[in-house]
Amino acid sequence: MVKEWQISGKLCMITGANSGIGKATAIGLAGLGARVVMVCRNKEKGEAALDEVIAKSGNESVELMLAELSSKKAIRRLADDYRKKHKELHVLINNAGALNSKRVETMDGLEMTFAVNHLAYFLLTNLLLDVLKLSAPARVINVSSNVHHQGVINFDDLQAKFRYNGTAAYNQSKLANVLFTYELARRLIGTGVTANCLHPGVVRTNFGMEATGFTAFMIRLMHPFFLSQEKGAEPLIYLASTPETFNGKYFSRKKEERSSEASYDEQDAKRLWEVSAELTNLGKA
User: Which one is catalytic: 82, 121, 164, 170?
Assistant: First the structure.
């Protein structure tokens, strides 16, 4: 018998939850009665966001977990700590992201944009996959962007060591989100766990505001015309809470759409999975 989906009482993890659409999503889901785990990088900002989510949602079943998602070690610690606290996970929302004008390496020696925007999604999801399966029905929701249409997966230089362009690196990472979602969805068929991704819209947050160059200039110029954080969170809340079941789909806002042609290349998706597993040491202690 298939269980009817009801978000109230479900346990949801949201990364990048201290600001922007992550925080707005936490408020929205907590307001619907979900139990929410907010993953944040900064303790002070995270605690302030936690207090705000509880106050605005009226739901005290909200907790904070700290993790630097550019670090493989920190992601593994997050997954281990989560397992010690909880035996189930119904919704995992991979939302944290980065946009860097200049090439920056993580403590693991990986290019920062690719590490935070894709490898963190890949590693955290895989580390929590057995918990999701045991909690089925369960959902994985990956935040991508419509700029994935301009993305190219450069397998010869994924880390952009030879030539770095901040916009190209970001676009590549967002295409990687879609390829990862589709490959994950194929692997999850029959498990009761689904995987979907979305473009939340162009949202008025602090994301990218610290960057430099033409892209950052355009972000600041158009900032007043972007969607509110609450509007940007609507599609995340929708995919987490809707009784309808989707798998392997791309949404722009709350509408299912066809993603880029490149995103449907199954060979690239499998290759990206294998490379990502190697880069994150998946399956190794």
Answer: 170
Domains, the chain, ranges and CATH?
11-201+230-279 (3.40.50.720)
Count CA atoms closer than 13 A to 258's CA, side-chain side.
Answer: 4
**H helix runs in 189-228, sequence order:** 213-222
Which residues are bridge partners to 250 per DSSP?
197, 257
Alpha-carbon distance 85 to 64, whole Å? Answer: 12
Cis peptide upstream of residue 137 (ω within 30 degrees of 0): yes
Length of the chain: 285
* 170 has catalytic annotation: yes
Write the pLDDT tens digit of every residue in 93-122: 999 999 998 999 999 999 999 999 999 999
CB of 224 within 8 A of CB of 259?
Answer: no
How far is it, in rounded angstroms, from Cα 182 to Cα 266? 8
Q: Measure the CA–CA gap between 181 and 146, rounded to whole angstroms.
A: 15
| pTM for the model | 0.91
